[in-house]
Amino acid sequence: MEADGNVVSIGIVQEQHPDRARLFLQWKQIDWPVMVDSMNLLGVRAVPLTIFIDEDGIVQSTRARPTDLDDFLLTTTTRNEFGDLIQTAPPVRQAATQILPMPDESDPITAWRDYGDALIRWGTSDHLASAADAYAYVLESYPESAPTLFRAGVAYRMMYDAFGGPDDFATAVDYWTRALAHNPNQYIWRRRIQQYGPRLDKPYPFYNWVQTAQDEIRRRGDFPIQLDATLTGAELAGPLRGNEQQSDAQQMDAEPDPQGMIIRDDGEPLVNVRTVAVPDTTLDREEQAGGPPKARAYRVFITLTPDQQKDAWWNNEAGGLALWLEPPPGYEIDQQLHTLQGPSNAEVSREARIIECEIRPIKTDGVPQLLPPTTEMYAYALYYICEHRDGVCNYMRQDFEIMIDHGPFRKDP
Q1: What is the DSSP code (8-state) at residue 197?
Q2: Distance of CA 285 to the CA centre of its chain
Q3: Are the C-beta atoms of 123 and 100 separated by less than 8 Å?
Q4: Which of 83, 283, 313, 318 could bridge to 386 as Cys pair (CB 3.0-4.6 Å)?
């Protein structure tokens, strides 16, 4: 039917990173148009979803099945005696190359959310901060607007991918979890959190197909589409099931500096540390009913970056980075000692070094224990750092704490 020109297929993906969708299309050699709805403007709660739209732009079905196609092709649009459509599709308000004018304080709240949407859809990375500000303005009046919360999270994750802002990733996760708290049946939003979350909560590996796709595209003599954002370990990891949880947890490692002998990088440290703890998205009935919070699993991201204002550099000739983690009370950790080497082709460098780990609650009689609202996970990093590119280099230690929030997804702003 499509070959005969009777049907045109158009896809829409609910994807934070459009480049990954483009890579998938290149891999599978899909040549029909596919659009991206990163902000979930369609409001769909789950996929796949098939929508039938006729030649006049009238939506004939939003819950279509493949077996309904023949009947759809026989459908005719209702017209009046003059041949005009009785029902017409809503007009496109703005050309795709334009951005809505910035509202002022007298404009309705909907204008501010439309403005934020337009900045993300039609603007550049330089417009993302303004989009986030527009959503924040809406949330001042409507703090429980779940779609606005979700879109604000999308904007902040885009800012993190574009500029590497130290707190943007954590802010995105916070907005997404608050959105899901208001609509726990919204599986598009849930999947966005699970993309970066712990293995215990993953329905499937999100992007384990990427390496295979790139290899097969190269074997065809083509160049794979370049990904804008580096894949995280969480995005490649598969679900954690059954006995694997027990065998995978709490690997025994030797602590690298048990006596605390390494000189401290504190006060005004040469290395900046940022952490994000992404929770699993499960809520039991007691929590949903307002009961006490239960412990949940987390995927923790630790990012260490030399402070450029202090002209700090990693010393790659001397060695890499080691990170030691102590699980908080009531938790087990998949791996306590993590090591990471710098680029071998550079004596010094300034890249962000990201390490991921997972912590899971220790269950008593199969039930997670109740915990206080927040607790802290103790950690320290060991690294070779130079005060200037050609300056003095030292082996240093930085101690820090990672805040873990045990509460249910928050509904407050």
Answers
A1: S
A2: 26
A3: no
A4: 313
DSSP letter (8 states) at residue 3: T
Strand partners, 35: 12
Distance CA 145, CA 110 (A): 11
Q: What is the rounded distance in angstroms from the CA atom of residue 337 to the CA atom of residue 304? A: 15
How far is residue 251's CA from residue 188's CA, in Å, rounded to a whole number? 34
Q: What contacts 30, CB < 8 A, 6 or more positions away?
A: 11, 24
Task: Describe the crossing of helices 146-163 and 109-122 by its angle, rounded to 10 degrees.
Answer: 30
Q: Which of the pair, 408 or 97, is modelled with greater confidence?
A: 408
Residues 6+ apart with CB under 8 A from 26: 213, 217, 222, 224, 225
H-helix or E-strand spanning residue 53: strand 52-53
Q: How many CB atoms lie within 10 A of CB 48?
A: 6
pLDDT in tens, 170-193: 999 999 999 988 888 898 999 999
The closest of 208, 212, 207 to 224, measured between CA atoms, is: 212
The pLDDT of residue 330 is 82
Report, in this order, helix, strand and coil percent for the chain, each rounded to 5: 30, 25, 50
Q: What is residue 168's three-state secondary structure? A: helix
Task: Scan for tokens 């099945």, then name that residue.
Answer: 65
Query: What's the pLDDT at 7?
Result: 82
User: Percent of the chain at pLDDT above 90?
Assistant: 54
Residue 201 CB neighbour total at 10 angstroms = 20
Report pLDDT digits (tens) over 265-321: 998 999 999 999 998 887 666 666 666 667 788 999 999 999 999 999 999 988 899
